[in-house]
Amino acid sequence: MPDRNAPATTRARRRRPVTQALLLQILDSQLADLDGGAALTVVDLGGGTGGVATELAERGHRVTVIDPSPDALASLERRTAELGLTDRISGLQGDAGNLADLVPADSADLVLCHRVLDVVDSPADALAAVNRTLRPGGMLSLVVQQRHAQVLSHALAGHITLARAVLADRHRFDHASTLDLVRQSGLEVVAEHGIGAAADYVAEAVVESAAGAYAELLALETELSTDPAFRPIAPALHVSARRPTA
Fold first, then answer.
1. Element spanning 18, H or E
2. Which CATH number do you get for residue 70?
């Protein structure tokens, strides 16, 4: 059974960024829908050095991290050993293109695909591979960068030409196109959250300057994440989607 107290007792750690804390809240909600108190089989596609994988392993789940970088996987191995999680986390070199060769079909309860579709040649093929990897009823946790927020970020930084180029680039993701892509892959959208609508624009010094500022910003970020006005313009979009059981 997952050790629900593990994240608080395993080690002292620096406070997470607000956006990461929100993402972990969303993942905990997904896990609660899936696990029923049992350890889950999780695939973290593009999981790098294991920032999210270690969080899930500390909750008692078994995580396979797939990443194309040998350096990232070496760091993952060291991190896993330091945390005593070698029995729950394994690393494999690869990417979405050879996911089917690395993980059996219909085997994963949860697949994390965070900021992977932004860099693959064919997002549709990547999601098709994820769909095959999930068991019926299994869940996808997807994070992509959103085009409109990138336009604003470049403009505020003074890069006006780049902002216009990003605005014109229809290959970049936005709220509507991301949901369409997920549904076209055969997955059912369960929930959607904007990530960073406020927190990405608040300096860390502001958060550290006043007691309670972190909690207030996290509460605001949580509220904005499901607000229909803010969700499409957040820097990142999280989509929870399920593989149909039929």
1. helix 18-34
2. 3.40.50.150
